[in-house]
Structures are given as C-alpha cells and as structure tokens.
C-alpha cells in the first residue's frame, strides 16, 4: 500500500498550520451545518411531516429519536474510518466524510412525506440519518489529527480549536438559515420551506471539497509511514496500548450531551404548548450563543496552551452542569431576557471551555500511528450516548414534557464522567508532538506495521 512521501523533519512547511486550521474550520462548519439543520427540523418540522400528527407527543418523541440514530451509527463509522485514516492518511478521510455528508443531507431534502408514501417516509429518513452519522464519525477526528500534527509547538490547543469553532460556525449557519424558514406560513413551511436548508448542502459540500483536496498530508503521519511504517492493525495497537485513554475519551465525550440538550430538547420544550415561546426567538438564542462561542473557543484553547488542558476542561464540564439548571429554569419562567442571558452564558461561554479544549486534550493522549482511531472511536461511542440523551430527556420530562428540573439533573449527571476522565488523565500541553503517546511504542511488534 502506498503512503504519502515524508515532509522534512521538524516543523510543518510555512503556511501549512494555518491552511490545515482553515480547512478544518470550513469543513467542520459545512459538516455540522448539515448535522444541525437536521436537529432543528427534528424539533420543529419532522413530527408533522414524517410522523403521526394525531399524537403530537409521540410524534415528537419519534422525531427526536431519529436525531439520535445518527449517533448510534457513529461508532460503527469510527471503527472503519479510524482504521483507514491511520493507515492511509488524514486527508482522504476528510474529503470522503465531506462528500458523504453533503449527499445524504441533500437526499433528506428530497424525501417524500408520510402523507405521500406512508411509513416508508420515516424509514428513508432514518437511512439518510445513518449516512450522516457515519460521515460525522470521521470528520472531527480526522480534522483534529490534521490540525494537531501540523500545529507549531506550544500552540496545539489554539490550532485544534478551529475544528470546534467550525462546528459552532456550522451550527450558527444552520440556525440563521432556519430563521427565515421558521417564519414562513405553516402551509409553505411544511410543504417546501423545510427542504431548502437541506438542498443548500450541495453548495457547501462543493466549497469544502475544493479546499480540502489541496491540503497536504501531515508531516507527523508522513514521517511515521516512512520510518517505522503505519500500523497494520491500528485497532489492535489501540486496544493493547491505549485502552485506558480510549475509555477516558468515551467518558469525556459525554460532555456533548450538554450541546444536544441545549440545541434540540430545550428548543422543543421552549416552543411546546406548556411554555409557548416563539420558534424565531429560540432560534435567535442559539444563534447568539454560537456567535459568543466562536470567540470564546479559541480564547479558552489559548489559555489551555498556557495553563494546561485539564483545568480549562474541568471549568467547562463542572460549569455546564450548573448552568444547565439556570438555562432550563429561565425557559420555564417564560422570560425571554433571562433565557437569552442564561443561554449565552451556559452555551456560549461556559460550555465552550470544554468544547474548545477537547480536540487537543483527547488527541494528545495517542501516538501518531493510532491517533485518528483513538479519537474517532472514543468520541463517537461517547457521542452516541449524547445523541440519545435527547430521547431520554423527552422521557424524563414526563407525559407533558415539562419537567425541566429532571432534565437538568440528568444532564448534570452526564457531566460527572467527563470530570472523572479529566482528573485521571495526564497533562500533555507541554509534551512535544513526536513524543505524545510514546509509552505504547516500545510494545509495538514488527508484524503490526506496514513499511512505507
């Protein structure tokens, strides 16, 4: 199997770190634009379009469950794409995931409704959602690995944070696109209006493809392939040498439950009959919170380059557990001012501490030969739980869907494993890139590598 030619030893070529960060930002923004327009539609549109209108509560529950289906597919995609990425390189995975997400999202916009084809409609919806999940499984891990391995010394936190800034940018873009859609008259919204954001994915996918295909492979991966060779079975090496770190990443990835509860369940709760807040207002809460997050994420990441990954991550994990109570309480009060304020603080500022630092924190736990596999598998298993947190929250909220305190308590409980994972992890912000995950190298056996 051919591998990329090695780059000169030492730092990445001039301009490559910025190019890698830009490609990660734009690609992640495009990927998660696709991913989050589904979340908005699942909360606001799909219960009426794809499920039984005669039972609104059950229709909403089933619609939110389809949001979680993609998270269930993500671990499967992570095992496959992680293996390929650690054998063939980061760039190939970054291009593949972008194309797959664009195609699957466009197809959702073309699906027939329940009124047109009956139960086949939600079945096709779930199939497209599974493809979205497989794509997302490799996106962040490949982008994280690409930026981390290109980053200059002492700035890995800052450069890898562009992946998550892109995620927030994609979420912001999805929200802004849905604002005029949600304002359409009901008749237009439920017929053609909701399809437009999904069709627009073709445009963004083409832009992302052009940018990513011009990106160089990382010097760390090229040097690994040219000297020691790539791992023949990255998953076997990962299970033998890094199993504890994979478990830490799984536990840490549960912090994503804060995002799914905020963006999906809280949106559905706020616009339900029990609260009665407007769709447009709640979409603006998410939009403004993401604008703040775009600034907060690189700042938190830069701070982690100075004081370490663990303290910044812990601020985000513990703080998110507390501020979720404040946010859901504000929604229950019906106060738009309190909802905007607590939403921006909870999601835009506090959650960004953990969200901005985890790409470097998790990636630094692994060596180059298994980094993409380790981050992909660990995060996607944890994200699978986070995806279905929305469905669990809908159950926990009771028959009327208004027990916000129980949902906040549930979300806080999901923040405990990330805290434990961070406390048990090593601090790696000052470890040279080539020495990350070195403890497993001595055990590597010759049959498990493939020479360049």
Descriptive account of the structure:
The protein has helices at residues 16-44, 46-49, 56-88, 90-109, 114-117, 120-150, 156-182, 186-189, 196-199, 201-212, 219-227, 234-241, 243-253, 256-270, 279-307, 309-333, 336-363, 371-396, 404-414, 416-424; strands spanning 230-231, 449-450. Helix 14 packs antiparallel against helix 17. Strands 1-2 form a two-stranded antiparallel ribbon. By secondary structure, it is an all-alpha fold. Its main location: membrane. It holds the Pfam family Sugar_tr. InterPro entries: MFS_dom, MFS_sugar_transport-like, MFS_trans_sf. It is found in: Cell membrane.
Uncertain residue ranges = 1-10, 440-447
What is the global morphology? globular
Helix content: over 70%
- Tell me how many strands there are: 2
Radius of gyration: 21 Å
Oligomer: single chain
Order of helices and strands: HHHHHHHHHHHEHHHHHHHHHE
Distance between the termini: 8 Å
If strands are numbered along the chain, what order do they take across the biggest sheet?
Answer: 1-2
Instruction: Count helical runs.
Output: 20
Helices and strands: which structural class?
A: mainly alpha
Main beta sheet: strand number and arrangement? Answer: 2 strands, antiparallel
Q: Mean pLDDT, as a whole number? A: 85
Strand content: under 5%
In short:
With 452 residues, the protein is mainly α. The protein has helices at residues 16-44, 46-49, 56-88, 90-109, 114-117, 120-150, 156-182, 186-189, 196-199, 201-212, 219-227, 234-241, 243-253, 256-270, 279-307, 309-333, 336-363, 371-396, 404-414, 416-424, and strands at residues 230-231, 449-450. The chain has 20 helices and 2 strands.
């Amino acid at each position: 199997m051919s591998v990329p030619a090695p780059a000169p030893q030492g730092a990445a070529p001039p301009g490559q770190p910025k190019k890698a960060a830009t490609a990660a930002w734009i690609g992640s923004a495009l990927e998660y634009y696709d991913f989050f327009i589904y979340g908005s539609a699942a909360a606001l549109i799909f219960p009426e379009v794809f499920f039984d209108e005669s039972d609104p509560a059950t229709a909403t529950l089933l619609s939110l469950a389809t949001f979680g289906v993609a998270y269930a597919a993500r671990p499967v995609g992570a095992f496959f794409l992680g293996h390929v990425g650690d054998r063939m390189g980061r760039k190939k995975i970054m291009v593949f995931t972008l194309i797959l997400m664009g195609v699957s999202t466009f197809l959702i916009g073309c699906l027939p409704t329940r009124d047109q084809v009956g139960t086949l409609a939600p079945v096709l919806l779930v199939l497209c959602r599974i493809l979205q999940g497989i794509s997302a499984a490799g996106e962040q891990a490949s982008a994280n690995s690409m930026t981390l391995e290109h980053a200059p010394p002492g700035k890995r936190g800052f450069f890898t944070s562009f992946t998550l800034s892109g995620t927030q940018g994609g979420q912001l873009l999805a929200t802004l696109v849905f604002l005029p859609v949600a304002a359409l008259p009901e008749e237009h919204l439920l017929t053609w209006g909701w399809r437009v954001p999904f069709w627009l994915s073709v445009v963004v996918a083409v832009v992302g493809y052009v940018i990513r295909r011009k990106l160089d492979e990382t010097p760390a991966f090229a040097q690994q392939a040219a000297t020691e060779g790539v791992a023949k079975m990255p998953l076997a090496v990962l299970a033998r040498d890094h199993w504890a770190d994979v478990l830490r990443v799984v536990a840490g990835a549960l912090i994503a439950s804060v995002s799914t509860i905020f963006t999906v369940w809280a949106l559905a709760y706020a616009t339900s009959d029990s609260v009665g807040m407007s769709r447009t207002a709640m979409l603006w809460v998410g939009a403004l919170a993401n604008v703040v997050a775009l600034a907060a994420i690189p700042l938190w990441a830069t701070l982690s380059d100075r004081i370490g990954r663990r303290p910044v991550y812990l601020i985000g994990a513990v703080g998110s557990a507390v501020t979720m109570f404040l946010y859901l309480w504000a929604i229950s009060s019906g106060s738009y001012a309190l909802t905007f304020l607590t939403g921006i603080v909870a999601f835009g500022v506090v959650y960004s501490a953990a969200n901005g630092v985890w790409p470097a924190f998790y990636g630094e736990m692994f060596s180059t030969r298994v980094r993409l596999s380790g981050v992909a598998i660990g995060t996607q298993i944890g994200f699978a739980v986070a995806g279905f947190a929305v469905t669990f929250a809908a159950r926990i909220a009771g028959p009327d869907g208004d027990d916000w305190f129980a949902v906040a308590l549930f979300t806080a409980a999901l923040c405990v494993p990330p805290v434990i994972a961070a406390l048990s992890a090593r601090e790696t912000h000052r470890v040279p890139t080539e020495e990350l995950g070195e403890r497993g190298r001595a055990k590597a056996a010759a049959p498990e590598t493939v020479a360049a």
